[in-house]
Amino acid sequence: MITHWLEGVVGVWEFVLCDALARVHPVRDPRPVAAETRFQAFLGEPASFQLAYRPPLDSAFRDSSPLQVRVEGDAADLVAVSCVELVPAAYLALPGHDDGYEWDEPGLYPDVLRPVSNGEAPVLFGSWRALWFDVTTTDPARAGVHELTVVMNSADGSELHRVPVTVELTGIELPPLDIVSSHWMHLDSLADHYGVEVFSEEHWAIVERFMASAATMGATSLLAPVWTPPLDTAIGTCRTVVQLIEITGTADEYRFGFDRLRRWLELCRRTGITGVEVAHLFTQWGAEATPGIVVNGERAFGWDVAATDPSYRELMEALLPALQTVLDEEWDRDHVVFHISDEPSGEKGLASYLAAKAVVADLLKGWTVVDALSEHSFYTSGAVPVPVVATNHVEPFLAERPERLWVYYCVSQDRDVANRFIGMPSARNRAIGHQLFASGVDGFLHWGFNFWYSRHAVRRVNPFEDTSAGGAFPAGDPFIVYPGPDGTPWPSIRHRVFAQAIWDHRALQAVRTAHGNEAALDTIDPTRTLRFNTPVLDPQHYYDSRQRLTKALTD
Fold this sequence. Notes:
Elements: E1 14-19, E2 39-41, E3 47-54, E4 67-73, E5 79-89, E6 107-115, E7 120-121, E8 129-135, E9 144-153, E10 159-169, E11 180-183, H1 187-194, H2 201-217, E12 221-224, E13 246-249, E14 254-257, H3 259-271, E15 275-278, E16 294-295, E17 298-299, H4 310-330, E18 336-338, H5 346-360, E19 368-373, H6 376-380, E20 386-390, H7 395-399, E21 406-408, H8 426-439, E22 443-446, E23 481-483, E24 489-491, H9 493-515, H10 517-524, H11 539-554
Parallel strand pairs: 2-10, 11-12, 11-22, 12-15, 15-18, 18-19, 19-20, 20-21, 21-22
Antiparallel strand pairs: 1-3, 3-8, 4-7, 4-9, 5-6, 5-8, 9-10, 13-14, 16-17, 23-24
């Protein structure tokens, strides 16, 4: 497939067909799809492509009326169309960043995928815009090669452009993801942004829709706020309470209500989430204090109650066994994890982490405990048996392999490794699927599915206006989904591309089952040089390797 233009001169419209790893900047000519690229997808996976367009570069052109888009062909009913919207990004990369960034200057950049329900494609004078197309089926009877035509008309109905697009929807159903894909969905962010009461019926409906969006992105596990997670919270402050467990206490005993937790677990089942992460038992960055747990309707614990306070042990002695009984009734404990504290570091951090862990260690026997960290000494000391390691610090762990190993990236993984910042090319986002498979790790974690706050949750931000948590993190790190109207999640391009990475992993699993691990690796890394610090940034690599995977599964 090649670039399609209307003459390509001043005074006429321009159109360019692009693949899903291109990003259409308003003032840079878009990268056209390569002739050898094939738009392929497995059952349930979207086959995605884009159409970029620009109005005439003529000072006399003043018509800002939206264009009209329609799709023709035998699979037109399988097509969903979104408009790629621009968002401001003031902080894209640190000075002296590596060469693997697409953009590093403040500006407006493509990210939001706003559903197009009325066929209207907005026009921006002198600038490129783009439409995003997803072609999806779960019906094997609809599998096959489909010839589509995208037609663009002016507001008066005049046809401006039509472009043929070939899409191949294979009849192959891939196995479920066999590693954990964990993403922290922030329930308080949903309630705060939409202005709804926590755990009202409206809030539950919004939670379910965003859960489903996370599952569509490839998440298999979400952080369960059994108590309000003690994460990204300024010392001495509290976030909006989103505690699933109702706790009442007297001088003699505690009583617990688990109805909200059971409802949460049912939403997980309904949306395809298979893993449960119990919120951290102690505060972040050192485990020195307790979470802001509410008892009898009032906050009874928090920053002012030390991790080793006897009153917290007393609560945990009653709460954890009761919680575990519910989890055993509702869930497979092999898919449940507990956390002690997030990102401990340094000698002092190790000491406080071990002290906090000692408070609850006997109450967690038989359950999996995992925590994010960067220092190898926390693993070798035995403090964290299942480490979640930053991708830029994982090599020592791979050399001295734990029985189970997860990885993560976030703000500090800004050099040499895969990530999903807005300033990075989409190929750097897509790379993680290949890397997770090639390394054989057991899980992936990301903290920011929908963190619509400034750093430490000091204030709310509008994610359509602030993509970097008030300038604290590179744009895109705090969230990957946007709050559409009426509690509807709007995905980002990064959301869609991360999903493609997870589909890659699942395809590799299928090839491994059919032909062995070496055959699977041959499709993505024949030289066996792929590491976490060597993400492949050539977008064509992912289309070519996908063709090899599909061929291996159909031969």
